[in-house]
């Protein structure tokens, strides 16, 4: 073999690894490009689902679609477009869930009584309260429309008693506003541990647009207690005569 042949063979031997390396790099680049295109296509499908949920204002579903897209395909152009809308959609979803939660805090009852139909709306205080040293228990606020007795608003305890014979005043605060003093009375009855707030219409009006209503009331065990009610979910239409 001549020196020229030896040189050509050596050059070919040197070039083969370089060509093979370039082929591998080209294959890797092509594979990465294909994977990126596939990811973008999947992300765009997720974006369409997200936009469809937004169009019907299903904020919970839209947020769920966005969560999946952003987790699986965070570096895609579709993810970037969805990310720009995410905070607004999440806030609307949170608002919907909060509305549903506060609405569920209220219970409504219709009962046939002498003289017609009795309607009521009731809600428990946010936290349980110890009113007599026997442990924390639930406090309830009720609005009632009775065909014979008219409209009433009152608190109900499960234990202990109110210090409101024959009458007293309670402090009512709406959200972070100034407290308002309102007349109340504990009727002479053993049917329930109840204390009526005399100006039921004023109390009802205070709930309109409120998030919370706090009522501070005197108890027989001494001092006062405060019950906080998350009232934002009240369906005022359930007691139509109250306005």
From TrEMBL:
Keywords tagged on the record: Coiled coil, Signal
Segments forming a coiled coil: 22-49
UniProt key word Coiled coil: yes
Highest taxon of source: Bacteria
Signal peptide (UniProt feature, chain positions): 1-20
Identification of the protein by name: Lipoprotein
